[in-house]
Design a protein that fits this description.
Structural class of chain A: mainly alpha
Oligomer: homodimer
Largest interface: A-B, 38 and 39 residues
Distance between the termini of chain A: 71 Å
Shape of chain A: flat
Strand order of the largest sheet of chain A: 1-2
Number of strands of chain A: 2
Largest sheet of chain A: 2 strands, antiparallel
DNA sequence: CGTCCCGCTTACGTTAACGTCAAGGGCACT
DNA sequence: AGTGCCCTTGACGTTAACGTAAGCGGGACG
């Protein structure tokens, strides 16, 4: 199985992060690049995980939160207790994210209102000139 | 004008934050409670602002980001240059928030998929028992 | 009057998520 | 052999957003 790998530098340019960040994520067990001697080689899995990590961050999730989510995506089938706990954890996150979306919608609506108000003030200000 | 005010303790229970947080926000000029002697009295305006602050935080905005947004909500009508810059800033935020919403939607969809997958595994695991 | 309790200020401590050296190995030219 | 460049591992520094503790003032209450 010849998994296509990437060097740390390639990862950095591809995902716009620093080497430090990738090493940090590895230390936190969010990524598990393989080693060629001492060098890191990032696999397809690492890339998929990094995508999820960066997305999670944009929603204000902590790396620890994200690590738990990642664990869920990677369970191939452990025991039932584990699986069920994982499921509950995911449900909770889902609820949380849906609430967040609802709030985001109202916030967007409010911001739009404000913007149209300032836009109006701008046109008035210009017609007055 | 008899503005209805609240003590710091009342604010804390109402918004579920600590006194330290409120003082911190005041120091950062996010809130401007009036003083009765040395005590802080939080006005309706402070409450409105705090609501926006806490919402912003849930979206991962920094306090500095939020301060700029708050400034926008409070402009009653300065000069045109200011107003126009404010407008642009708001537009940028709006774009940002809409992008965030789009991503949130896909993340929610993905999570749902995962959940139905684990749910399926659970029922299988149980029927096997 | 003593003592709570609340609030205030000042200031140092803490955590997450990296940034930034310092010191060194390995490989590719030249 | 020397010069770069990339990578590595420590290890200490930094910023945001508070937590926490120390020490003081003021009113309420027994």
């Amino acid at each position: 199985m010849i998994t296509e790998t990437m060097t740390i530098r390639e990862m950095c340019t591809a995902f716009d992060v620093t080497p430090r960040t990738l090493r940090f994520y590895e230390a936190k067990e969010l990524l598990q690049p393989i080693r060629q001697g001492t060098r890191r080689l990032f696999t397809k899995t690492d890339r998929a995980r990094l995508t999820l990590i960066l997305r999670g961050k944009r929603f204000g999730f902590s790396l620890e939160d994200i690590r738990q989510l990642l664990d869920m995506y990677n369970r191939d089938g452990s025991n039932e207790a584990q699986l069920s706990r994982t499921h509950e954890l995911g449900q909770a996150r889902l609820t949380q994210m849906q609430a967040q979306r609802a709030e985001l919608d109202t916030a967007i609506a409010e911001l739009k209102d404000q913007l149209s108000a300032t836009a109006k003030m701008l046109t008035q200000s210009r017609s007055a000139a």
